[in-house]
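Quick illustration, no need to memorize.
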Amino acid sequence: MLYRILKLIVGLGIRSYYREIRILNRENLDQEGPVILIANHPNTLMDAWIMGYINRRRVHFMAKATFFNSPLKRRLLGALGMIPINRKSDGVVSGVANKDSFEACYALLESGEILVVFPEGTSYLERKLRELKTGTARIALEVEARSNGQLGLKVIPIGLNYLSADTFRGSVMINVGKPISVDAFLDEYKTNQGIAAKKLTERFRSELSRVFVTMDDNVKEQLVHQLTYLFDSRYKETKGVKHSIGMLKEIQDRLDELSVTVPWKIEEINEETGDLIRTLSFFGIRPDFLDRPYRPMLYLRQTIQSYLFLLLTIPFFLFGFLHNALPYYGIGKLVPRLTKEVEYHAPLVVLIGLVSYPLVYVLWCVLFNFLFDPSWLELLIYGASLPLTGLFAHFFLRYIRHLTSKQQFSRFARRRKIVFSQLKAQRAQLKELIFND
């Protein structure tokens, strides 16, 4: 019961924090019997919450033992299905023995449950698949060997691909890979456990690389993100996190190919990219506006409609801003002071928000009840409107920024038609340089 309640609450927090959560190949999760879910680990607790959120069945987690540093925490986290494990980098936590933790994992899987493991062991907000520890493979092989290969254990790789992972209203694409059977490694495991575990771990790495966009070169990663920024556009028919991650992968693959066949091209692409970004920044133009044909009358009509919309909805914005500004800006100031590790920013925002927003809403409802003595229905409507208008206030401010950029682009396209055409041509030439031999 506690798990279901917390899953519902945390799910609400995740849905509020991320604008789009896209799950690919979700049918691969519909497995009966014991399952180990493995995933990359860029976003600390948020990764674990998402793994629980996307699974209809209850999941259990392996977590670092430092979370279990008191009897109360061990009892609470144990009730939530978390199993502690001592890591070499953290030392040994009193009351936690790895032997007991592994036995708990074996028992869990033998009873047909789901275990979530992040085999990288540590969490860093980067688009890189780090070295995988062999512990996950050892658990899978041992539990399957105990049943002489009759258990039917499956290991499912999951790629957590974030866009602006630590930014409110960012996006995440969850790519679920095909289930992996460990049967092929059992015979070798019986004769040489270490080698079998290493080979299975390599298989895990190979499959995770299929579902997660990983980049090992920081310089090339920066170039890939810059090119995605230039080419990804909200004004094309295909958009959203799936399209953006797909473009990221497409550009990465092409640059990898060019690095082998014509490496001199990479430097040229890098220079052209930097030059175009600097020029766009100088004129204050977003790259995706280059995909829009400039029609003066259309822009004029849209501008009038936009200002009319803003004018009519100002009361809703002011209502939402008034009731939500304190927790929103307060959390934004507090979280960076609590930790400098960006991997913890998103989960901390959600955790603090799940407490602070309801508390602030309750205080507002108490004040509203004291001042106006409303009926219970009026009080209910008032309370329900607070989070809804808060989201609208956030949208309202983003819309103003978008409208400002749009007007700046309109003036630019009207007064500097030749430069506008040159920028479009420059970007087209850059795309030609990358994708055409």
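The chain has a mean pLDDT of 91.
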